[in-house]
Design brief:
474 residues, single chain, binds manganese (II) ion, L-fucose Isomerase, Chain A, domain 2, Rossmann fold, five-stranded parallel sheet, six-stranded antiparallel barrel, alpha/beta
Length: 474
């Protein structure tokens, strides 16, 4: 995975001058202690930095402006230790252009019946202070996240962690650059979209480059570099020659590594973080990138087949949110419609991401009956079991919509000796019939991103931040 920036989240607590200097010192000390312990918990993927007690409209506005302009800040976390008159928050909150999490918590997780007095009540007013503050966020339609509960509890920290990953993906969405080698597949509708609209709402830059420019990179890769990549590949995966002659097998694997190194070099030099291919447009290439695309997805690049740049962007975006953990480009391939076995077998002609493998992938070489090119090497493996989310991005004349559902994943019931590709089986949690019908009514396509690392809530939070409609089927 390409390393993300060392993002941080700024944390402030709201108060006011009404209770005196001593109380404000306690407010600051408690908030600082929460930040310290959240960081020490090891449950948060990104650092929380305490930035002080907010008591005035001017101070809040200045703070929000600074958060906007600091590229290391991925978002803002607020908490109302005491009552903090929320008119003070209006201007700053309206100016904030980064994800906002309202941590509605209390310094102590209990009511100290024996010692509670008015000093305690003046200091610990989250119960009503957090509501006064939340009203303004609701009125401003800030689409902020609210995490509610004791800050020291693991489930609360997990919610903050999930949101942090999504907030970083939001920030990084504006850095996503997709290179299209070739156009979308001829006559296909669902992979189309408005690229300007995608840049406005999702931040993605989507460029076309002729395959001939890639071919120059492919031809420029040295045999020495391929030797080194071959050695590394053989140390990571099982090399299965099968019915091929040694020469044929090695030629195909080496050619895929040549494509892998060329694609990587091309993207790294030009700042791209995702790409598309199209089997209809391979002029000057010997093989459709199969193993090559799989290794790039493993490395964290986004990918979409048949020119599907929307899936390439989604793949990259969700890989960032998932820290490249078990998140893969997929296609609804074929169905099991028998009662009690209902499932979708997901795969692709070659390009299945090994980040979801449950066994050691095998490097195999077989003919590909589409595209009219040489036999491509590919990784063959079995997917995994567990809960996952499956999502797609569709374009309608009036904008984008994310369609998704939760799925229960399983391994295929049997081997497929005549279909040598990686495979993953899943069933929508609402049932295949119900899930598939609602997916199709919503206009969701057949290319999806399947993630074992992300939750339905994270999908909803991420696209709410991006102001893109989510139709999550549940
Ligand atoms: Mn496809």
């Amino acid at each position: 995975m390409q390393k993300m920036k060392d993002y941080e989240f700024w944390f402030v607590t709201g108060s006011q001058f009404l209770y005196g200097e001593e109380q404000l010192k306690s407010v600051a000390a408690d908030a600082e202690d929460i930040a310290k312990k959240l960081n020490a918990s090891g449950n948060l993927p990104y650092k929380v930095v305490f930035k002080g007690v907010m008591t005035t409209a001017d101070g809040i506005t200045k703070f929000m402006k600074e958060a906007n302009y600091n590229d290391n800040v991925a978002g803002v976390i607020t908490w109302m230790h005491t009552f903090s008159p929320a008119k003070n928050w209006i201007r700053g909150t309206r100016l904030l252009q980064k994800p906002l999490l309202h941590l509605a918590t209390q310094y102590l997780n209990k009511i100290p019946y024996d010692t509670i007095d008015f000093d305690y009540m003046n200091l610990n007013q989250s119960a009503h202070g957090d509501r006064e503050y939340a009203y303004i966020n609701a009125r401003l339609q800030k689409h902020n996240k609210i995490v509610y509960g004791f800050w020291g509890d693991e489930d609360v920290q997990k919610e903050i962690a999930d949101w942090q990953n999504v907030a970083v993906a939001y920030n990084e969405s504006f850095n996503i650059k997709i290179v299209r080698f070739g156009d979308t597949m001829r006559n296909v509708a669902v992979t189309e979209g408005d690229k300007v609209e995608a840049q406005i709402f999702l931040g993605w830059t989507v460029d076309y480059w002729p395959v001939s420019e890639l071919v120059e990179y492919v031809n420029g890769i040295s045999e020495d570099d391929i030797d080194a990549a071959y050695k590394e590949l053989a140390s990571q995966y099982d090399m299965v020659q099968g019915d091929n002659t040694k020469e044929h097998y090695e030629h195909s694997v080496r050619y895929q590594l040549r494509e892998y190194l060329a694609l990587k070099k091309f993207m790294d030099e030009k700042g791209y973080t995702g790409f598309t291919t199209n089997f209809e447009d391979l002029h000057g290439l010997e093989e459709l990138p199969g193993l090559a695309a799989q290794l790039l997805m493993r490395d964290g690049y986004g990918f979409g087949a048949e020119g599907d740049w929307k899936s390439a962007g989604m793949d990259r975006l969700l890989k960032i949110a998932a820290q490249n953990n078990a998140t893969a480009f997929m296609e609804d391939y074929t169905l099991d419609l028998r009662h009690g076995h209902e499932a979708i077998l997901g795969s692709h002609m070659l390009e299945v991401d090994p980040s979801i493998a449950s066994d050691k992938p095998r490097v195999e070489v077989h003919p590909l009956d589409i595209g009219g090119k040489d036999d491509p090497a590919r990784l063959v493996f079995t997917g995994r079991e567990g809960e996952a989310v499956d999502v797609t991005l569709s374009y309608f004349g009036d904008g984008y919509k994310v369609i998704g559902y939760s799925v229960d994943c399983h391994k295929p019931e049997a081997e497929t000796p005549h279909l040598p590709v990686a495979k993953q089986l899943w069933t929508p949690t609402v049932g295949l019939k119900e899930g598939a019908k609602r997916w199709m009514h919503a206009g969701g396509g057949h290319h999806t991103i399947l993630s074992f690392a992300l939750t339905p809530q994270q999908i909803k939070d991420l696209f709410e931040m991006l102001d893109v409609t989510v139709d999550f089927i549940e």
